Amino acid sequence: MPLSLTFDVSDAIGSGEHLTQAAWAFLPEIPAKAPAVLVCLAGGLYDKHYWHMEIPGYPGYSFGEHMANAGYIVIAVDHLGVGESTDPVSSGELGLELLATGDAEVVRQIRSKAAAGTLIGGLAPVSLPVVGVGHSMGACLTTMVQARYTVYDAVALLGYGVQITNVYEQDADAEDLEARVQQTMQAARQLSGVEPGDTHMIAPPRDYLKNMFYAGEVPQEVIDADTAVQSRVPVRAVAEVTTPGFVEKYTPQVTVPVFLAFGAAIDVSPNPYAEPANYTGSPDVTLHLVPKSGHCHNFASHRGALWDRIAKWAPTVV
Protein backbone atom coordinates (compact mmCIF):
# COMPACT_ATOMS: atom_id res chain seq x y z
CA MET A 1 0.00 0.00 0.00
CA PRO A 2 1.23 3.54 -0.66
CA LEU A 3 2.29 5.76 2.22
CA SER A 4 0.21 8.93 2.71
CA LEU A 5 2.04 12.27 2.85
CA THR A 6 0.90 15.87 3.37
CA PHE A 7 2.71 19.05 2.35
CA ASP A 8 1.88 22.50 3.72
CA VAL A 9 2.13 25.00 0.82
CA SER A 10 0.50 27.96 2.60
CA ASP A 11 3.59 30.18 2.65
CA ALA A 12 4.34 29.58 -1.03
CA ILE A 13 0.83 30.61 -2.08
CA GLY A 14 0.94 33.58 0.31
CA SER A 15 -2.79 34.28 0.49
CA GLY A 16 -3.05 33.80 4.24
CA GLU A 17 -5.18 30.67 4.07
CA HIS A 18 -4.02 27.24 5.22
CA LEU A 19 -3.35 25.06 2.17
CA THR A 20 -2.06 21.50 2.04
CA GLN A 21 -1.42 19.01 -0.74
CA ALA A 22 -1.84 15.27 -0.34
CA ALA A 23 0.41 12.62 -1.86
CA TRP A 24 1.12 8.91 -1.97
CA ALA A 25 4.66 7.54 -1.73
CA PHE A 26 5.93 4.22 -3.07
CA LEU A 27 9.31 3.01 -1.84
CA PRO A 28 11.74 0.56 -3.44
CA GLU A 29 13.44 -2.16 -1.45
CA ILE A 30 16.59 -0.05 -1.02
CA PRO A 31 15.60 3.66 -1.22
CA ALA A 32 19.18 4.88 -0.83
CA LYS A 33 20.07 3.20 -4.14
CA ALA A 34 17.17 4.70 -6.09
CA PRO A 35 18.22 6.28 -9.43
CA ALA A 36 15.86 9.20 -8.74
CA VAL A 37 12.70 10.40 -7.07
CA LEU A 38 9.77 10.49 -9.51
CA VAL A 39 7.24 13.23 -8.66
CA CYS A 40 4.03 12.39 -10.51
CA LEU A 41 1.28 14.89 -11.40
CA ALA A 42 -2.02 13.62 -12.81
CA GLY A 43 -4.11 15.20 -15.51
CA GLY A 44 -7.42 17.00 -15.32
CA LEU A 45 -10.31 14.80 -14.11
CA TYR A 46 -7.76 12.66 -12.25
CA ASP A 47 -6.01 12.68 -8.88
CA LYS A 48 -3.21 10.46 -7.56
CA HIS A 49 -5.29 7.35 -8.36
CA TYR A 50 -4.09 7.70 -11.96
CA TRP A 51 -0.71 6.46 -10.75
CA HIS A 52 -2.05 3.61 -8.62
CA MET A 53 -5.17 1.64 -9.54
CA GLU A 54 -6.12 -1.57 -7.76
CA ILE A 55 -8.76 -3.38 -9.84
CA PRO A 56 -10.01 -6.85 -8.77
CA GLY A 57 -9.16 -9.35 -11.48
CA TYR A 58 -7.03 -6.83 -13.39
CA PRO A 59 -3.54 -6.57 -11.89
CA GLY A 60 -0.72 -4.40 -13.17
CA TYR A 61 -2.34 -0.95 -13.28
CA SER A 62 -0.08 0.75 -10.73
CA PHE A 63 2.67 2.97 -12.13
CA GLY A 64 3.77 3.64 -8.54
CA GLU A 65 4.28 -0.02 -7.66
CA HIS A 66 5.87 -0.82 -11.02
CA MET A 67 8.43 1.95 -10.76
CA ALA A 68 9.14 1.23 -7.09
CA ASN A 69 9.88 -2.36 -8.10
CA ALA A 70 12.26 -0.89 -10.69
CA GLY A 71 14.10 0.85 -7.86
CA TYR A 72 12.59 4.33 -7.85
CA ILE A 73 11.06 6.40 -5.07
CA VAL A 74 7.69 7.47 -6.47
CA ILE A 75 5.54 10.28 -5.07
CA ALA A 76 2.11 10.92 -6.65
CA VAL A 77 0.75 14.37 -5.75
CA ASP A 78 -2.75 15.85 -5.75
CA HIS A 79 -2.85 19.42 -7.10
CA LEU A 80 -4.52 22.10 -5.01
CA GLY A 81 -8.29 21.83 -5.41
CA VAL A 82 -8.00 18.19 -6.52
CA GLY A 83 -8.31 14.87 -4.69
CA GLU A 84 -7.46 15.13 -1.01
CA SER A 85 -5.68 18.48 -1.31
CA THR A 86 -7.15 21.73 0.03
CA ASP A 87 -9.58 23.82 -2.01
CA PRO A 88 -8.20 27.37 -2.14
CA VAL A 89 -10.91 29.94 -1.35
CA SER A 90 -9.17 33.30 -1.09
CA SER A 91 -6.05 32.70 -3.20
CA GLY A 92 -7.44 33.90 -6.53
CA GLU A 93 -8.68 32.06 -9.60
CA LEU A 94 -7.92 28.34 -9.61
CA GLY A 95 -5.87 28.47 -12.78
CA LEU A 96 -2.70 26.64 -13.76
CA GLU A 97 -0.36 29.30 -12.36
CA LEU A 98 -1.78 28.85 -8.85
CA LEU A 99 -1.63 25.07 -9.15
CA ALA A 100 1.94 25.23 -10.47
CA THR A 101 3.01 27.34 -7.50
CA GLY A 102 1.69 24.71 -5.09
CA ASP A 103 3.18 21.81 -7.05
CA ALA A 104 6.60 23.50 -7.18
CA GLU A 105 6.55 24.00 -3.42
CA VAL A 106 5.77 20.30 -2.94
CA VAL A 107 8.80 19.38 -5.06
CA ARG A 108 11.00 21.79 -3.12
CA GLN A 109 9.89 20.19 0.13
CA ILE A 110 10.42 16.68 -1.23
CA ARG A 111 14.03 17.61 -2.02
CA SER A 112 14.73 19.29 1.33
CA LYS A 113 12.94 16.70 3.47
CA ALA A 114 14.55 13.77 1.66
CA ALA A 115 17.99 15.30 2.22
CA ALA A 116 17.19 15.88 5.91
CA GLY A 117 15.70 12.43 6.46
CA THR A 118 12.27 13.83 7.37
CA LEU A 119 10.31 12.96 4.22
CA ILE A 120 9.08 9.55 5.37
CA GLY A 121 9.48 7.87 8.74
CA GLY A 122 12.28 5.34 8.64
CA LEU A 123 13.76 6.72 5.40
CA ALA A 124 17.36 7.76 5.93
CA PRO A 125 18.62 11.04 4.42
CA VAL A 126 18.99 10.75 0.64
CA SER A 127 20.06 13.33 -1.94
CA LEU A 128 18.75 12.06 -5.25
CA PRO A 129 17.89 13.57 -8.63
CA VAL A 130 14.21 14.49 -8.97
CA VAL A 131 12.36 13.76 -12.20
CA GLY A 132 8.98 15.33 -12.87
CA VAL A 133 6.49 12.94 -14.45
CA GLY A 134 3.24 14.50 -15.61
CA HIS A 135 0.27 13.25 -17.59
CA SER A 136 -2.01 15.59 -19.60
CA MET A 137 -2.75 18.61 -17.35
CA GLY A 138 -0.06 17.25 -15.05
CA ALA A 139 2.41 17.36 -17.95
CA CYS A 140 1.43 20.95 -18.68
CA LEU A 141 1.93 21.80 -15.01
CA THR A 142 5.25 19.93 -14.89
CA THR A 143 6.39 22.08 -17.83
CA MET A 144 5.27 25.27 -16.10
CA VAL A 145 6.85 24.25 -12.78
CA GLN A 146 10.20 23.59 -14.43
CA ALA A 147 10.10 26.73 -16.57
CA ARG A 148 9.28 28.98 -13.61
CA TYR A 149 11.01 27.27 -10.68
CA THR A 150 13.68 24.88 -12.14
CA VAL A 151 13.10 22.22 -9.46
CA TYR A 152 13.55 19.11 -11.63
CA ASP A 153 16.63 17.42 -13.07
CA ALA A 154 14.60 16.02 -15.98
CA VAL A 155 10.94 15.80 -16.99
CA ALA A 156 8.76 13.10 -18.55
CA LEU A 157 5.76 14.75 -20.20
CA LEU A 158 3.06 12.25 -21.13
CA GLY A 159 0.05 13.01 -23.30
CA TYR A 160 0.23 16.78 -23.65
CA GLY A 161 0.79 18.76 -26.83
CA VAL A 162 1.44 22.46 -27.38
CA GLN A 163 -1.34 22.73 -29.97
CA ILE A 164 -3.78 20.51 -28.10
CA THR A 165 -6.69 19.01 -30.03
CA ASN A 166 -9.31 16.19 -29.89
CA VAL A 167 -10.84 17.52 -26.65
CA TYR A 168 -13.75 19.59 -27.96
CA GLU A 169 -15.65 19.36 -31.20
CA GLN A 170 -14.39 22.81 -32.12
CA ASP A 171 -11.18 24.51 -30.97
CA ALA A 172 -11.15 28.05 -29.61
CA ASP A 173 -10.40 30.44 -32.45
CA ALA A 174 -9.99 33.87 -30.86
CA GLU A 175 -6.69 35.68 -31.48
CA ASP A 176 -6.17 36.74 -27.85
CA LEU A 177 -5.09 33.94 -25.47
CA GLU A 178 -7.43 35.01 -22.67
CA ALA A 179 -10.35 35.15 -25.10
CA ARG A 180 -9.51 31.61 -26.22
CA VAL A 181 -9.41 30.48 -22.59
CA GLN A 182 -12.86 31.99 -22.04
CA GLN A 183 -14.16 30.14 -25.11
CA THR A 184 -12.83 26.81 -23.87
CA MET A 185 -14.16 27.54 -20.37
CA GLN A 186 -17.62 28.01 -21.85
CA ALA A 187 -17.28 24.75 -23.81
CA ALA A 188 -16.14 22.90 -20.67
CA ARG A 189 -19.08 24.24 -18.66
CA GLN A 190 -21.55 23.21 -21.36
CA LEU A 191 -20.14 19.68 -21.55
CA SER A 192 -20.05 19.15 -17.79
CA GLY A 193 -23.27 21.01 -16.97
CA VAL A 194 -21.77 23.20 -14.23
CA GLU A 195 -23.19 26.62 -13.42
CA PRO A 196 -21.34 29.87 -14.27
CA GLY A 197 -20.40 30.46 -10.63
CA ASP A 198 -19.06 26.95 -9.96
CA THR A 199 -15.30 26.73 -9.42
CA HIS A 200 -15.01 22.97 -10.09
CA MET A 201 -16.37 20.52 -12.62
CA ILE A 202 -16.63 16.77 -13.03
CA ALA A 203 -15.72 15.24 -16.35
CA PRO A 204 -18.12 15.28 -19.26
CA PRO A 205 -19.80 11.87 -19.58
CA ARG A 206 -17.13 9.20 -20.06
CA ASP A 207 -18.79 8.16 -23.32
CA TYR A 208 -17.79 11.56 -24.76
CA LEU A 209 -14.14 10.94 -23.90
CA LYS A 210 -14.07 7.15 -24.13
CA ASN A 211 -12.45 6.83 -27.57
CA MET A 212 -9.77 9.43 -26.89
CA PHE A 213 -8.96 8.12 -23.42
CA TYR A 214 -8.94 4.38 -24.15
CA ALA A 215 -8.80 3.96 -27.96
CA GLY A 216 -11.07 0.91 -27.87
CA GLU A 217 -8.48 -1.39 -26.28
CA VAL A 218 -9.18 -1.07 -22.54
CA PRO A 219 -11.50 -3.62 -20.83
CA GLN A 220 -14.84 -2.15 -19.74
CA GLU A 221 -14.23 -3.28 -16.16
CA VAL A 222 -11.05 -1.19 -16.09
CA ILE A 223 -12.89 1.80 -17.57
CA ASP A 224 -15.58 1.43 -14.92
CA ALA A 225 -12.95 1.33 -12.16
CA ASP A 226 -11.30 4.41 -13.60
CA THR A 227 -14.62 6.25 -13.80
CA ALA A 228 -15.42 5.36 -10.17
CA VAL A 229 -12.40 7.31 -8.87
CA GLN A 230 -12.51 10.27 -11.26
CA SER A 231 -11.75 13.60 -9.65
CA ARG A 232 -13.29 17.01 -10.00
CA VAL A 233 -11.03 19.68 -11.46
CA PRO A 234 -10.96 23.51 -11.25
CA VAL A 235 -12.87 24.90 -14.25
CA ARG A 236 -10.31 27.62 -14.96
CA ALA A 237 -7.45 25.12 -14.94
CA VAL A 238 -9.18 22.67 -17.28
CA ALA A 239 -10.03 25.52 -19.66
CA GLU A 240 -6.45 26.76 -19.75
CA VAL A 241 -4.97 23.31 -20.25
CA THR A 242 -7.33 22.56 -23.16
CA THR A 243 -6.66 25.88 -24.90
CA PRO A 244 -4.31 25.34 -27.87
CA GLY A 245 -1.02 27.18 -27.36
CA PHE A 246 -1.47 27.96 -23.66
CA VAL A 247 1.77 26.21 -22.66
CA GLU A 248 3.72 27.40 -25.71
CA LYS A 249 5.60 30.20 -23.94
CA TYR A 250 6.88 27.79 -21.26
CA THR A 251 8.30 24.96 -23.36
CA PRO A 252 11.44 26.84 -24.59
CA GLN A 253 12.28 27.63 -20.95
CA VAL A 254 12.68 23.95 -20.04
CA THR A 255 16.47 23.45 -20.01
CA VAL A 256 16.65 19.87 -18.70
CA PRO A 257 16.24 16.57 -20.59
CA VAL A 258 12.69 15.91 -21.78
CA PHE A 259 10.91 12.60 -22.42
CA LEU A 260 7.71 12.96 -24.47
CA ALA A 261 5.12 10.21 -24.85
CA PHE A 262 1.86 10.06 -26.79
CA GLY A 263 -0.69 7.40 -27.55
CA ALA A 264 -0.07 5.99 -31.01
CA ALA A 265 -3.77 5.44 -31.70
CA ILE A 266 -5.06 8.86 -30.62
CA ASP A 267 -3.92 11.60 -28.27
CA VAL A 268 -4.18 15.35 -27.76
CA SER A 269 -1.35 16.34 -30.10
CA PRO A 270 -2.29 16.68 -33.78
CA ASN A 271 1.29 15.74 -34.69
CA PRO A 272 3.45 14.09 -32.01
CA TYR A 273 6.49 14.19 -34.31
CA ALA A 274 6.39 17.99 -34.25
CA GLU A 275 6.36 18.23 -30.45
CA PRO A 276 10.13 17.93 -29.77
CA ALA A 277 10.72 21.15 -31.71
CA ASN A 278 8.88 23.09 -28.99
CA TYR A 279 11.59 22.31 -26.40
CA THR A 280 14.34 24.44 -27.87
CA GLY A 281 16.01 25.00 -24.49
CA SER A 282 16.48 21.30 -23.75
CA PRO A 283 19.73 19.54 -24.64
CA ASP A 284 18.05 16.13 -24.90
CA VAL A 285 14.51 15.41 -26.16
CA THR A 286 13.17 11.88 -26.54
CA LEU A 287 9.88 10.96 -28.26
CA HIS A 288 8.05 7.72 -27.55
CA LEU A 289 4.71 6.56 -29.01
CA VAL A 290 2.76 4.03 -26.96
CA PRO A 291 1.43 1.33 -29.34
CA LYS A 292 -2.37 1.09 -29.66
CA SER A 293 -2.79 3.59 -26.83
CA GLY A 294 -5.23 6.41 -26.40
CA HIS A 295 -4.63 9.46 -24.22
CA CYS A 296 -4.61 7.62 -20.87
CA HIS A 297 -1.44 5.56 -21.30
CA ASN A 298 -1.54 4.02 -17.82
CA PHE A 299 -4.56 1.94 -18.88
CA ALA A 300 -3.19 0.91 -22.27
CA SER A 301 -2.11 -2.64 -23.10
CA HIS A 302 1.49 -1.44 -23.63
CA ARG A 303 1.64 0.62 -20.42
CA GLY A 304 4.34 -1.64 -18.96
CA ALA A 305 6.60 -1.00 -21.94
CA LEU A 306 6.16 2.76 -21.47
CA TRP A 307 6.95 2.50 -17.76
CA ASP A 308 10.04 0.40 -18.46
CA ARG A 309 11.16 2.90 -21.10
CA ILE A 310 10.97 5.72 -18.55
CA ALA A 311 12.81 3.58 -15.98
CA LYS A 312 15.67 3.02 -18.42
CA TRP A 313 15.69 6.60 -19.74
CA ALA A 314 15.95 8.49 -16.46
CA PRO A 315 19.37 7.19 -15.30
CA THR A 316 20.87 8.16 -18.67
CA VAL A 317 20.01 11.83 -18.31
CA VAL A 318 20.25 12.70 -14.59
From TrEMBL:
Signal peptide: none annotated. Keywords: Hydrolase. The keyword Hydrolase applies. One of its GO terms (cellular component) is membrane. InterPro entries: AB_hydrolase_1, AB_hydrolase_fold, AB_hydrolase_sf. The keyword Hydrolase applies. Coiled coil: none annotated. GO terms for molecular function: hydrolase activity. It comes from the Bacteria. This is Alpha/beta hydrolase family protein.
